[in-house]
Amino acid sequence: MFGRSHKKSDNSRYYEVLGVPKTASPDDLKKAYKKAAIKNHPDKGGDPEKFKELAHAYEVLSDPEKREIYDQYGEDALKEGMGAGGGMHDPFDIFSSFFGGSPFGGGGSSRGRRQRRGEDVVHPLKVSLEDLYKGTTKKLSLSRNVLCSKCNGKGSKSGASVKCSGCQGTGMKVTIRQLGPGMIQQMQHACNECKGTGETISDRDRCTQCKGEKVVQEKKVLEVHVEKGMQNGQKITFPGEADEAPDTVTGDIVFVLQQKDHPKFKRKGDDLFVEHSLLLTEALCGFQFILSHLDGRQLLIKSQPGEVVKPNSYKAINDEGMPMYGRPFMKGKLYIHFNVEFPDSLSLDQVEALQKILPPKPQSQLTDMEIDECEETTLHDVNMEEEMRRKAQHQEAYDDDDEDMLHGGAQRVQCAQQ
């Protein structure tokens, strides 16, 4: 982030918070912080805001690079370089780093050491509609980091580590560049010496199993139970199965169901939809056909005697839809959408035969004289999609011609004026 042109802003407040002069040494800062932090700790009835302010002041002034920025440019420069609040760490973590818990006895602070939570690992899991209808179990092999069993996640044989001198144990470094008079650029990044951990381990003391990394790779097979009626996008969570790390609450592995398209059935909530085409004869005179369901059962679908099925109509079968999640013995409906295929043409004999069977046509209200005064017309078959596409292209070309004429006319007017 680029800093603005910095004036000499207030660069004494942090020293006043700790009650030390600007010339205070690192040891003076430690002593002042310890004394004030114990006095103002919330577990001893102190002011939480004062306790937080002390931790922030000490965090800045105990870091040589941050202290240099603060002394030269003030608090605003730290905020611009490290985000609002100056990248502040948990004040209870800073306090615990001095006392290893609580100096008040009783097994440590009632607040306890706050551990950060590791990130969740999210995996998509493709499932078929049959899987969601019948339920299934899928075995998946995954690799993850686990704490080294040989060193218990310490990274060293002795269990000891040293605060990184490159970042003073913060795990972060701030790089400053002077861009011009009163202009600076500050960038915060993980310390490359300790890889952001804030501590280093000597080569001799490194754990031989994890090589000082504190974690090792482990392969694990998870059984993912997909229950009947689960929905597309539903999550199946395995708590605490993500990557492990020292001083971290392990995150979860989350599988997100992704339903694959089915060639025949469509799902909407707990209901299923299927398309079926009938010949005109079937629509008028009755039909029956076999429908293979998602679980392999064969359903006989048939019309009632004398029933006529109209084009684009729906019929439903109760309790043949999807199982309801959590109540698998209850199911939605299966809807069948009927399309009726008409013949392309009929012979005169077929027309005469149908006229005798079908209900009579309505009597014409037109007289012979009215018909003689009319002009004969001819009906043509048309593809409306193609017709609309052709008209749109024609209109676009027409608009382009109008625009060309408009510009051309303007040029002629200019020429006439010259």
UniProtKB/TrEMBL annotation:
Record-given protein name: Molecular chaperone (DnaJ superfamily)
SUPFAM superfamilies: Chaperone J-domain (SSF46565), DnaJ/Hsp40 cysteine-rich domain (SSF57938), HSP40/DnaJ peptide-binding domain (SSF49493)
Keyword Isomerase set for record: no
Entry keyword set: Chaperone, Lipoprotein, Metal-binding, Methylation, Prenylation, Repeat, Zinc, Zinc-finger
Lineage: Eukaryota, Viridiplantae, Streptophyta, Embryophyta, Tracheophyta
The keyword Protein transport is annotated on this UniProt entry: no
Coiled-coil blocks: none
GO molecular function annotation: ATP binding; Hsp70 protein binding; mRNA binding; unfolded protein binding; zinc ion binding
